[in-house]
């Protein structure tokens, strides 16, 4: 028991997303003993969001029947470019007004414990690395396919965030020079080709052009409430149109994987995020085959391509891992 007895023994991991905030309280052993969830409401401004993050942390601590005095620190993943040392969110594209926000300072004031801020996909990569890979490979690339596509690099067992803390922006590697426009301003980014947003756009455009799909029977012509899980249902009911679009997205994920394996030759490529969670059974074989086709001869030898089972809790787990490491 080297731990200082005056310091709390629990840690809190937070996943701050564009639409929701998740928080989880973890014991030393990384067991989650209480969680909370709040909508982000980023349209109400930065201050309100910071307040909601603090409330979400307090809710999870309360849920675990603890008080903030028993918490040693909080690790939080934010959706954008983060300066880890300063604890600021430099820019978050999906959150209104998030430019140079001193999140660490503001949350430490609100919560009274040390707070550590990282990029959300970096943190999720750390989460799956620690919680899911029991063999602890030296290197792992995390690819998270959801609303956008993010990534994280674990090299020699440590998160690699690069010279200016911007490494791992896997979603913005350009795969098609004259491809669809991306949120970042470029054309043909991986994210613009294979994210949930890209897949949904292709489906909606196809429906507009008169393509037949079970999805319109399930959800109506507007497809307003379309979710990743609906794609799985449609494919399992034999919908060739949806299957074709999902397959092309899987090919792009495979090509991106091949590029990353060529550059980094990691032991493990871990695929996560909402799209993978819903469609792993449909996509994994295409991803693996395509990655093998496109990688340099020999580069894929022994490399494992896996789909994460952590789902939504990758972010809070990674936040807790980070806070645990930083408060030790
Ligand atoms: Zn982009």
Oligomer: single chain
State the total count of DSSP E strands: 13
Bound compounds, each kind once, are: zinc ion
Strands of the biggest beta sheet: in what spatial order?
Answer: 3-2-1-4-8
Uncertain ranges? 1-5
The H/E string reads: EEEHEEEEHEHEEEHHHHHEHEH
Distance between the termini: 12 Å
Mean pLDDT across every amino acid position: 93
Alpha plus pi helix count:
10
Strand proportion, as a percent range, falls in: 15-25%
Largest sheet: 5 strands, mixed
Assign an overall shape.
globular
- State Rg: 20 Å
Category from helices, strands and their pairing: alpha/beta
Helical content stands at 40-55%
What does it look like?
This protein is an alpha/beta fold. It is 41% helix and 21% strand. The protein is built from 10 helices and 13 strands. It has helices at 46-63, 103-111, 120-132, 190-194, 196-208, 214-219, 228-236, 240-264, 274-294, 313-327, and strands spanning 10-16, 20-26, 32-39, 71-78, 81-83, 88-91, 99-101, 115-119, 139-145, 149-155, 158-159, 268-272, 304-307. The strands form 3 sheets. It has a 5-stranded mixed β-sheet. The protein has a 5-stranded mixed β-sheet with strand order 11-10-9-12-13, with helices on both faces. A 3-stranded antiparallel β-sheet has the order 5-6-7. The longest helix is centred in the C-terminal third of the chain and has 25 residues, at 240-264. The structure holds zinc ion. Zinc ion is lined by residues 172, 182, 184, 186, 189, 191. Zinc ion (ZN) binds at residues 172, 182, 184, 186, 189, 191.
